[in-house]
Amino acid sequence: MMLCSTRLRFSTRLLAYRRNLSTACMDDVLFEVKNDVGIITLNRPKALNSLNTSMVLKIKPKLKEYESLVRMVIMQGAGGKAFCAGGDVKSITENGVGAKSFEIGTNFFHNEYSMDSMIGKYKVPYVSLIDGITMGGGVGISVHGKYRVATEKTLFAMPETAIGLFCDVGGSHVLSRMDKHLGVLLGLTGCRLKGSDVVKAGIATHYVHSSKIDGLRAKLIEDVRDPGIVLAENTDDMDGVEFSMAPLMEKIDSIFSHERVEDIVEALRTDGSEWAQGVLKSLSEVSPTGLKITRKEISKGKNLSLDECIKMEHRLAVRCIEAKYSTDFYEGVRALLIDKDKNPKWCPASLEEVKDEIIDKYFEPLSNDQELQLS
Fold first, then answer.
1. How would residue 37 be classed by pLDDT, with cut points 50, 70 and 90?
2. C-alpha angle 114/170/344, rounded to 5°?
3. pTM here?
């Protein structure tokens, strides 16, 4: 009798665990419609609302549904700390190089990138409240929409070279269009922009203090006028605010206009300032392969549409997951996000060892069944 009782208690606990796990998975994104406004809330605050496949597969069909149902969509993050800190790349690489990782990774990037493309072509106003950390995948689900509202808590970065990857989610389109090669600096180094600087760099379109974000959201929902008018009336005038990097912009333009990363490094060494030395340190810590891929994709992205950039980035992502030419993506995620020793062993280990002909192979078309098809 005691054995049966123990088994019953175990079974009850197991069922409760599975039910809670299922609920957690179901609730990683929240959807609601208020006054003809679709509200999407990324709901993984403990993971800084990082995007995973489960979330993307819920958001994509809902975006399609909302496009013909509501007058506006608001995208936001739960928890008050992050809008979205990026894509959940740990789940891609934790099985190591091989068929399973390739299947998981290509499925995730295919769906994430097609979602970013959808946002870039969205037919109704799309408003992102980027209050908090906004990195990587979080940039992809915000920056391509029409309106992006930053606060003093906004922290923007594209830090992919630090994990052996490249600036994706349409980053080659966005970074290539920034003034004075600022985007090249941001893409190569993962340099962070905070608060009002996110607006001055063109990542955000509007700015408001975080204490007013709830009120702004309420006004966007209640006021049926064009959201551009509502935002203009309820956000701060940024004309008199100076970009903190303004004194460095001419120097950035001169140094980061070089097409070859080796020439950028040499220009920084020649400059020799404290700022240049700090940038050199940042570049020395990230993937040499990631640096060369990122510089080339930004250069190419300048003359491509968003969808063309996303298709290019999909090719790059497939090649990084495949790890035929370098395992840096797996090593970078291990060092920074899994083991957290922050001591990646890049291979190749130097810029000089990363041959241009190998980088060119990352950009070559995939087989027809692997190419990303965008509607």
1. very high
2. 105
3. 0.91
